[in-house]
Amino acid sequence: MTLHLNFPNPYPACTVKDLLEKHLLIPRKIRHFLRIKKHVTINGKAINWKSLVQTGDEIALTFDEQDYPQKVIPFGQANLVDCLYEDDQFIIVNKPEGMKTHGNEPDEIALLNHVAAYCKQTCYVVHRLDKETSGAIIFAKNPFILPILNRLLENKKISRQYWAVIQGDIKSKEVTYNDRIGRDRHDRRKRLVDLKKGLTALTRVTRLKTFEQFSLVNCRLATGRTHQIRVHLAHHNHAIMGDPLYSNIPASRLMLHAHQLSLIHPLTLEKIKVNAPSSTFEQELHKLK
């Protein structure tokens, strides 16, 4: 696989070294390959590693098999993909409930495989949604952009907002849950609040609407622990409707939907915001009115 990337530099003036290391987050080993192979040009010219790159300069990067060994995954069905945003670097799609983000076995077909078929190329998981959860999810289209998107996620630069229908009503219009979350040693499928050994987790919850016995809330993630929203809400006696692990409240689906995702594009600095619709979520919500 040979990957050629061309884009105008969106960052303030800096050296080639700082551009590749600090802004584009290219791993050290691959930066070394780029340097010795002279696979970086600025405005069509070979450069010195200490050369200054100005905003708007045209950057060209070439990666080969030694940089990123080719990875092949089986293609799924392109017609199952609901695309919300796409460019040469990544794609944001609307995941349906009941579909895994990625398979656990090499030949298992999941959303990742359907996205690969839609894009006609291997794609890469940036973050995950539980099988039962629907909504906006992002996939990298090449191994170059993957660590950049991962770093944006780690630094909370990718905003994810979820709607949830919960039991009861939260105490005030806005609450923040910061209970640590760990594994449930009695059930490998589940997570629980573990104040001693759990990992830091922070969820901000805003009440949007109340019904007789339920509430519609918006949840914003500051961390991304497995089942984080589901565990935090259930721990505070606000289990999500239709949750097969943490609730006994019946519904046709888990009432958790990632309705919005936003980020600043790392190669253009353009603000991207997508909204993901869900007819099944709306239908179940309508029953409560």
Question: Would you write up a description of this structure?
Answer:
Strand 13 and strand 14 (191-193) form a beta hairpin. This protein starts with a strand and ends with a helix. The longest helix is centred in the middle third of the chain and has 10 residues, at 145-154. Strands 7, 8, 9, 10, 11, 12, 15, 16, 17 and 18 form a ten-stranded mixed beta sheet that branches. A four-stranded antiparallel beta sheet has the order 1-6-3-4, with no helix packed on it. A two-stranded antiparallel ribbon has the order 2-5. The protein has 289 residues and is α+β, with helices and mostly antiparallel strands. Helix content is 18%, strand content 31%. The protein is elongated.
In a nutshell, what does this entry contain?
This protein is an alpha+beta fold.
Layout of strands and helices, then pairs:
Layout: E1 3-8, E2 14-15, H1 16-23, H2 28-36, E3 40-42, E4 45-46, E5 52-53, E6 58-63, E7 83-86, E8 90-95, H3 111-119, E9 124-125, E10 134-140, H4 145-154, E11 159-167, E12 174-177, E13 181-183, E14 191-193, E15 203-210, E16 214-221, H5 228-235, E17 256-264, E18 271-275, H6 279-286
Parallel strand pairs: 10-17
Antiparallel strand pairs: 1-6, 2-5, 3-4, 3-6, 7-8, 8-10, 9-10, 11-16, 11-17, 12-15, 13-14, 15-16, 17-18
